[in-house]
Structure formats: structure tokens, C-alpha cells
Design brief:
This protein has about 500 residues and is an alpha/beta fold. The chain has a domain of about 170 residues: P-loop containing nucleotide triphosphate hydrolases (Rossmann fold, 3-Layer(aba) Sandwich). Helices cover about 45% and strands about 15% of the residues. The chain is built from 18 helices and 14 strands. The protein has a six-stranded parallel β-sheet with strand order 7-12-11-8-10-9, with helices on both faces. A two-stranded parallel ribbon has the order 1-6. β3 and β4 form a beta hairpin. The protein is globular. It starts with 7 loop residues before the first helix and ends with a helix. The C terminus is likely disordered.
Length: about 500
């Protein structure tokens, strides 16, 4: 038996390699996967990822067209064979000019070079997205040689994980009813509650986490001012971790806390994935986490640090409070400026009370921001509730309803994605090649061009139905789906191969 530790990006990479080599079932079908934070892995993002590859046929023309756009030329560049490519390049250049840094993309630094990456809901997704306008933006930004890319595969997360022999998932928070239903219906998941050790011991109950209240303030300035007040109140007693709604608010809160009389500016930490200039802070994360809980000063000036983060710092990081005074004062204080879904909230609250130490939290919300902005009566409804626990429960309930609507939308995307993924797998099983092979390949050029045309037509018709996709598959590739299942009726070669596999399975069972 071999045990391998890997991240989601490596799982996707293995899936893609084995799919292109036509060996997916042989590898994944014999593997049991143990997934830590399983809720984050299978629920958080759109289930479908569309993969592109450098298109060796189109790249030469694209480079000439982008160079002409950069110079402001308006005529078809010399040597370009495709008027369509030139028209597309001009359109892309205009689109790139309209994109807003901080909203549509973020500029980060990788290997000493500035790189623009697409943002989804204000953050960089685990599997980075690509677009032709982004290619042009990076060409202008750092002179990165542009490559024409065209779609060659679609991967659906549930399709990936259901290919494994079994999934054993671990998590401290599987979310609300909507997410539990999704996990059960998509993966056939069965939930087992594992009690914490101290809950099984007599007379030694684990420490509680104290809720200091959920309060609403009017506007962003009032929110930041109130957060600073809370930090000032607690910084001499316990370490303070402020979890903000996003990078913009994070920066504003950091600056405001640093400017506060009574808090040492150099003892306020910014904890984020990237710094203000887009450079990764990965090499500093461990130090920041360790310093977040250390007590500073002497007897006359005893104090702790304030660490300001966003969702990045609210999950998966172990803040260990060993200081006796901090423990006596209730443990680390988490100050949240937004209430996420229940699954994420459990993680945020879990940054307190580590190693069976006490913990505490306080929530300060802007009643002009979400979820109140789109639900005018919610703020007054929450404000009328007496206890912080009641207020928090109602806000988590609202978030669960939102998650339910999102998952319902994803259900339609997932149904289509699973069928496209199955088509992709079937195609490469019949026309295998190495992961690094050119696209379109010389060996299977005609079929590759047909698959490329299918994907491009799907992209041009966003929101396509399963029925529309099935029609395209039959028209472009001669592939038909049966009416009652997602099995393939492919070429004679494919059917013979499948019949041979089934016969081999039947003989092995006997």
C-alpha cells in the first residue's frame, strides 16, 4: 500500500494526465482518497473547470495580432492568415482595457515577474481561470509571450471524486442542511459524528467559546471605528484576530488600528495571501501565526498583538495560545466583520479555543452591506433579537438559504459538466496521447479539431442545456447518449473496447 499526500491542484493534474493517456479508470478506480476539509473541497466553487491548451495552429497569428494591437495599428498585420483572428484580437484588446484591477483581476508577483490573475467573487480561485483578455493584459504588463489557447477538456469536480474507489472525508464543519443534502445526493455521503475526546471524559468538559455579541453599525466608517474600539479594549488582555470581509476592508482596518492611540503600530499584523503589491506572503505565514499569540512588553506595559486578516486567515491556521494571562482572560478574541455560511463560521470560531483553551468572539456588522443591503427588513429583524446567539443563528440561517440557491444553480451546471467530462474521458480513451502532446495533435488532428469546435460552440452558447450539448456531440463527433443513462454509443472501436473490458470483469468475478 502506498500513501501519498497532495493538494487539489495535484489531484486535478493526475486526473488530467491519466484522462489524456486513456488510463483513468485503471488508476483512480483502485485508489481510496482521504480528503481533509472535505466540505471545502467539494462544495465551495463551481463544480466545472474548463481547461485550455496552447493551440499550435493559432499561436503564430495571435502573436502578430497582439503586437499590432499594442502598437495601435488598425490594418490586418502582414503574414496573418486569418481575418477572424485579427478581428478577435482587436476585440480582446478593447475588452482588456475595460477590465478593472481589484475587481476583475489582481496583479501578483510570481518568480520575480508581475502576473495578472482573474478574480472570482473577489478572490483567486484554487484552479486559476484563463481568458484571452487576460493573456493580452499579461502581454502588456510584463511582455509575456502570448499563446493562443483553445479548449480541449472539461473537468467536473463530482465526476473526478466519484471516479475513486471510495472517499473518506474529514472536516470539523460540513455546513447546514442545504450542503448536507448536496453532499449526500452528489457523493452518496454518509455523515458520522466523531465526538471530541474531552466530551467522552467524565468531569472534564472542554472549554466553551464565549459570544460577546453581534452588533450592527451604520456604514463602513462606523464599522471600522467600532472594530478599533474593540481591539483597544482587549489588546492588553488577549491576542486579537480580526477577520474582515475582503482585501479592501482588510487594508482599511489595518491602517485604522495602526493609527489608534494605545496600540503600537508595529505590533499590528497583516495576515493575507498576498501583500498590497501582489507578492505572495507564503514565506511569512508561519511567523505571523506564531507571533499572533505572543505576549509583549513587561509588567508595566503588558500587551498582545492585533492580527488583521480576511477569509484566508480564518480557516486552517493553528493559533496556539500558551500565555497564562491570555487564557485567564478568556483566550484569543476573534472579531468578525461579516457572517459567512455556517460551515465557514465554524472554522472562524475554531480559531479560538485551540488545544482545549478557552476562546471568545465578537461580531460587528455594517447594516448597509450584505446580507442586509439585499434584504431591507433583515437588519431591524436581527437588531430586535436580544441575545448574540439568536442574532448569529438568524444570520447563519440566511446564509444557508443563499447557499441552497447557489447549490441549486450548480446542480444544473453539474449535470451538464458531468456529461461533458464523460465525453472528454471517452474521447481521450479512444484517441490517447501524452499530457504534453501538441494540441491539436498531428496524429489525431481531424478528431481534435472536431472536439475543439464542439467546446468553442458550447462556450459561445453560455448556459447551454444538456439536450443542446447532446445534439452538439452527435453533430460534431458522431457521439450519441442513450436516453436513460449517460453511457456512450461511440465508434465501433470504442464499443469493442468497452465490451472487452466488461467481458474481462465478468470472467474475473467468476
Amino acid at each position: 500500500m502506498q500513501v501519498v499526500y497532495c493538494l487539489k491542484s495535484r489531484i486535478n493534474n493526475l486526473f488530467m494526465r491519466k484522462m489524456l493517456e486513456g488510463e483513468l479508470d485503471e488508476v483512480l478506480g483502485q485508489t481510496v482518497i482521504i480528503v481533509d476539509e472535505v466540505d471545502d473541497l467539494v462544495v465551495n466553487e463551481n463544480p466545472n473547470t474548463n481547461y485550455v491548451k496552447e493551440d499550435v495552429e493559432r499561436t503564430p497569428d495571435l502573436r502578430k495580432c497582439f503586437a499590432a494591437c499594442k502598437k495601435g495599428e488598425f490594418m490586418l498585420p502582414r503574414g496573418v492568415r486569418s481575418q477572424k483572428m485579427w478581428d478577435e484580437a482587436q476585440k480582446v484588446a478593447k475588452e482588456a482595457d475595460k477590465k478593472v484591477e481589484g475587481r476583475d483581476y489582481r496583479v501578483i508577483e510570481e518568480n520575480g515577474k508581475k502576473v495578472a490573475v482573474i478574480l472570482v467573487d473577489g478572490k483567486i480561485p484554487k484552479v486559476r481561470q484563463t481568458a484571452l483578455w487576460l493573456t493580452y493584459r499579461n502581454y502588456l504588463l510584463s511582455g509575456t509571450e502570448p499563446n493562443a489557447e483553445s479548449p480541449f477538456a472539461t473537468v467536473c469536480t463530482p465526476y473526478i471524486f466519484n471516479k475513486y474507489r471510495a472517499i473518506f472525508g474529514l472536516s470539523g464543519s460540513v455546513g447546514g442542511a442545504a450542503e448536507l443534502h448536496y453532499l449526500a445526493s452528489t457523493y452518496g455521503a454518509i455523515k458520522f459524528e466523531v465526538p471530541r475526546f474531552l466530551d467522552t471524559c467524565t468531569g472534564d468538559a472542554r472549554k466553551v467559546v464565549t459570544n460577546h455579541g453581534v452588533e450592527l453599525v451604520d456604514g463602513e466608517a462606523a464599522l471600522i471605528g467600532r472594530v478599533v474600539q474593540v481591539c483597544l479594549k482587549w489588546v492588553r488582555k488577549v491576542p486579537v484576530l480580526v477577520i474582515t470581509s475582503g482585501p479592501d476592508e482588510l487594508l482599511k482596518v489595518v491602517n485604522a488600528v495602526k493609527e489608534c492611540d494605545g496600540i503600537h503600530a508595529d505590533e499590528v499584523q497583516r495576515f493575507s495571501q498576498f501583500d498590497a503589491h501582489g507578492r505572495t506572503l507564503k514565506d511569512k505565514w508561519e511567523t505571523i501565526i506564531a507571533d499572533a499569540t505572543k505576549r509583549l512588553g513587561g509588567n508595566a506595559d503588558n500587551r498582545c498583538r492585533v492580527t488583521v486578516t480576511d477569509r484566508f486567515g480564518g480557516r486552517g491556521h493553528d493559533y496556539q495560545v500558551m500565555d497564562k494571562d491570555a487564557i485567564a482572560n478568556g483566550g484569543m478574541l476573534v472579531v468578525a466583520t461579516t457572517v459567512p455560511d455556517e460551515r465557514e463560521w465554524i472554522q472562524w470560531r475554531g480559531r479560538t479555543a485551540r488545544q482545549d483553551k478557552p476562546g471568545q468572539y465578537q461580531v460587528v456588522l455594517n447594516r448597509r452591506a450584505e446580507p442586509f443591503a439585499s434584504n431591507p427588513s433583515l437588519a431591524d429583524q436581527v437588531a430586535s433579537m436580544r441575545s448574540g446567539d439568536e442574532r448569529l443563528a438568524r444570520l447563519l440561517e440566511v446564509q444557508d438559504e443563499t447557499i441552497g440557491a447557489t447549490l441549486k444553480k450548480y446542480q444544473l451546471d453539474q449535470e451538464l459538466g458531468e456529461q461533458i467530462n464523460e465525453l472528454t474521458e471517452a474521447f481521450f480513451r479512444e484517441y490517447p496521447r501524452s499530457f504534453d502532446a501538441e494540441w491539436p495533435s498531428n496524429e489525431h488532428r481531424e478528431k481534435d479539431l472536431q472536439l475543439r469546435a464542439l467546446f468553442e460552440q458550447l462556450q459561445a452558447n453560455k448556459g447551454s442545456s444538456v439536450k443542446y450539448f447532446q445534439s452538439l456531440a452527435k453533430d460534431k463527433l458522431g457521439i450519441s447518449f442513450s436516453n436513460d443513462q449517460t453511457a456512450w454509443q461511440m465508434s465501433d472501436m470504442w464499443k469493442r473496447r468497452r465490451e472487452g473490458e466488461m467481458a474481462g470483469q465478468a470472467s474475473s468475478q467468476h
